[in-house]
Amino acid sequence: MPPAVPEAPAAPAARATPEAPGDGAEAADILRRTRAVVDPELRAALETLPGPMRRVALYHFGWQEADGRQASGGAGKALRPALVLAAAAALGGPAARGGAVRAAVAVELVHNFTLLHDDVMDRDASRRHRPTAWTVFGDADAILAGDALLALALRLLAEDPHPASAAAAARLADCVVELCAGQHADTSLERRGPADVGLAEVLAMAEAKTGALIGCACAVGALYAGASARDVEALDAFGREAGLAFQLIDDVIGIWGDPSRTGKPAGADLAARKKSLPVVAALASGTPAAAELAALYETPYDKEDLNGTALAVERAGGRDWAQTEAADRMARAVQALSRAIPEPESAEGLLALAEFVTRRST
Amino acid sequence: MPPAVPEAPAAPAARATPEAPGDGAEAADILRRTRAVVDPELRAALETLPGPMRRVALYHFGWQEADGRQASGGAGKALRPALVLAAAAALGGPAARGGAVRAAVAVELVHNFTLLHDDVMDRDASRRHRPTAWTVFGDADAILAGDALLALALRLLAEDPHPASAAAAARLADCVVELCAGQHADTSLERRGPADVGLAEVLAMAEAKTGALIGCACAVGALYAGASARDVEALDAFGREAGLAFQLIDDVIGIWGDPSRTGKPAGADLAARKKSLPVVAALASGTPAAAELAALYETPYDKEDLNGTALAVERAGGRDWAQTEAADRMARAVQALSRAIPEPESAEGLLALAEFVTRRST
After folding, report:
1. C-beta atoms surrounding A295 within 10 Å
2. How far apart are the first and last CA of chain B?
3. What is the chain B residue with the closest CA to A160?
4. Quick one: closest CA in B to A148, which residue?
5. Contact A155 B173 (CB under 8 A)
6. Candidate from A52, A148, A154 with C-beta closest to B169
7. Quick check: B150 and A152 CB within 8 A?
8. Which of A222, A361, B137, B282 could cross-link B141 (Cys pair, CB 3.0–4.6 Å)?
9. Ranges of Low complexity compositional bias (chains A, B) (predicted)?
10. pLDDT tens digits in sequence order for chain A, 362 residues long
């Protein structure tokens, strides 16, 4: 199966284009090293939770089965904590990276708070190849576990004596509000008919829902490196654009991805009539395939239609648009990064992570 | 209707007993003055929220109708922010009180975060004489508005340059986790049969669900006054015990209260078969009335039974127990307070507030 990578943009983002060498080994190594330092702190933080919340959290992170037996992980990629640490290292060296571990854990806790709550609201039944927490423990326990993870994240920062911790907490809390706005926009978009959803608002929703926290992760890392306000904002912009690229590719995978890799049934997003980015771009294309897709989206899901629906998105240009837009966002991300970190070797880790998440194969 | 006040305990809590003079005018005055300084900051904080969350929050606080028209308030008693300010004043004088307004707003935001989420989980349809937010805006928007209020609370503290803000944020975040545990215990108790619920665990649940935040409010005020760790803990203990007294009286009101004052239908707690403190005490009494009550609680609610159910709780001693226990808790609260604040005149405001909430008439 071909990799779902963006087409090469006519942009200066040499490292971000798919022809750039690199098989993701560097990113995989960074993610592995991130888990090695983040997991012990993360688990120690979760251990402080009262029993019922701990049980749901450990299940959600893939460390426990629903009955409390040990499970073998699957706690996600740890992309956001890796970005915190990579940003700290890029701007402040190994010492800054070492000092930012607690902040990295806080960002990962916030990410997982949103997953727990979003799954309740969206009635999503599957996450990381397992039944979602609310399907196992009920809505109330999943909401409470999410609340507890958010509180835990901000407690970690409040207790962190690092001079940047208060600024990081303010930024992270602000980001949570933006994530909520993004999730609200998402649920409200999903309630509307396919003709009533514009591409600009779906892009804005994706920026709030996905870009904001990835940007915040990078900005928090910069804060922990003692970076200037200008550099913190540049890192935020880098993360936001890379996050949007990530979401675009994620949406492509949500339609054409391999269920054994995505952890979701094939074509789940189409079956749920989700107005993901490639779908909305296709609907807005004014092509005959767009009209066909709109008609399909007006009717409930029929298993027979799945391939036809995916084909309509593709023929209406949704797939190409998403891949080109992802490449464009990556180019902007690289540009923002170079404002704060002109030396390519210092930016390597961050670029490797950004490339990695936008190069995942379908 | 007689006031639902505790019987006089054989305890040193002279000020906390119902015979003590005072008609609540002092507390009402403190609450009014609290609203005057807290409301502008609270509204300014809510104005920073993105539109959809702001709309739900302003509705929940009673400042807007569902359609956005201005409403005339009903934002609750502001007990918790009043306790923050009263504790700061008691231990640090007027300057400490003035510096603690933002912390008072943060505590009030956390309280309202729990109300929004708890109403979703408990499917409560009415709050402060109005339909609850989830019944008006749906579950997702109520959950998101709650999330946003929690984040806003901790952002306010993270941005507060006061030297106590980080310690207060850590304490408040920790309290949120305890509130979640309390809410979990509550929902899990409600799912069990009346015979399977013990008095000790219902008291522990009430302490986590209600006492914890009232204690935290007092402790945060003490932190903002620069109090010693010992005094901060004493203030926490004062608030916890007073909070439990408050919950006991609130549960009495939930059975025998006047709907026009409680904002809930008459006997709502009995109709919902809620295992409130007087009910569990009655069930545990081993009296014939207890068996009668257990039988009633095993069957679904019948309008005709309402007076009979209330009478069974009373005959089984549930009402008397709750009032005596409330008086006992108030005595302990006063004792804890006197450890930190031996001078009666300094403790006046806190005592007036504690008395006020446990003296509300049925």
Report:
1. 11
2. 7
3. B166
4. B177
5. yes
6. A154
7. no
8. B137
9. 7-21
10. 333 333 333 334 334 444 344 568 999 999 999 999 999 999 999 999 999 999 999 999 999 999 999 998 666 889 999 999 999 999 999 999 999 999 999 999 999 999 999 999 999 898 888 999 999 999 999 999 999 999 999 999 999 999 999 999 999 999 999 999 999 999 999 888 888 899 999 999 999 999 999 999 999 999 999 999 999 999 999 999 999 999 999 999 889 887 777 666 767 788 888 899 999 999 999 999 999 999 999 888 777 778 889 999 999 999 999 999 999 999 999 999 999 999 999 999 999 999 988 876 44
CB spacing of B50 vs A178 below 8 angstroms: yes
Look up residue A22 and give its two tokens: 């690199």
Residues 182-201 of B with CB under 8 A from A: 183-185, 187-188
Answer yes or no: do A151 and B176 touch at CB < 8 A: yes
CA distance A79 to A158: 23
Contacts 24+ apart (CB under 8 A), B121-127: B121/A139, B121/A140, B121/A143, B121/A144, B121/B183, B121/B187, B122/B186, B122/B187, B122/B190, B126/B263, B126/B264, B126/B265, B126/B268, B127/B60, B127/B263
CATH topology for the B15-354 domain: Farnesyl Diphosphate Synthase (1.10.600)
Provide the CA B107 distance to its chain's centre, in angstroms: 12
Kindly state the tokens that stand for A255: 């339609």
Place of tokens 């290292």: A89
3-state secondary structure of A64: strand
